[in-house]
Amino acid sequence: MEASFSRRKLVDPARMRELMQRSDLRGAIQLGSHFGTIAVCGTALWMTWGSWWAVPVFMVHGVLINFLYAGQHELSHETVFKTKWLNEAFGRLIGFLMIFPRDFDKVQHWAHHQHTQNWDKDGEFVREPYTLRSYLLWFWGPTYWYTRALRIFRFCKGEVIEPYIRDADSAKVIREGRIHAALYALIAVVSLAAGS
Q1: 185 in Cβ contact with 153 (< 8 Å)
Q2: What is the gyration radius of the CA atoms in the chain, in angstroms?
Q3: Which of 51, 61, 105, 107 has CB 3.0 to 4.6 Å from 41, enough for a Cys bridge?
């Protein structure tokens, strides 16, 4: 489909600057409310586990966790908190929770902004085009989570195959992948020791 999309009522530049003001307080409220909602939903899931009520709660919980990436995206752009290190710290936390390391995400997303819609260079499109089967496997999660875990394993072995990751950034994403893997292993050991 060839079409042109335009918008005639653009946001006034002065209003845009007003909306783009970074604030530690607003950032804390936004991020805190998201994590708080996940905690409330997680508690509801724990309380309903084993009943059919857990099914819709589980779905809502999954959506809330998945939408953490929206926060990671803004934290990577450093548009959440006025204090720079808060953007980095919470971006790293969310990246860890999502098995999507922050430094890798920043490199991939920068490539997306530099080469938007160029399937050979856009960090978010460097893959084979979807078939119905591959899209459904991605949509429902098996290949989505598999590729995230596999990327961490590759980085642990020092393998960087993404064409948009420059040599200068390879060491950074490898180090970050190894840190993530070590922390995931620590969680697994503590969980086994605690019998959880």
Answers
A1: no
A2: 19
A3: 61
* pLDDT score, position 1: 47
DSSP 126: -
What's the rounded Cα separation, in Å, for the pair 32 and 25? 10
Q: Which of 38, 12, 26 is nearest to 79 (CA)?
A: 26
Q: Alpha carbon of 131 to those of 88, 117, 139: distances in Å?
A: 36, 18, 12
Token pair, residue 1, equals 């489909």
Q: 4: pLDDT confidence band, cut at 50, 70 and 90? A: low
Dihedral angle of Cα 92, 66, 16, 11, to the nearest 10 degrees? 160
Nearest Cα residue to 107 out of 165, 162, 160: 165
Q: pTM here?
A: 0.84
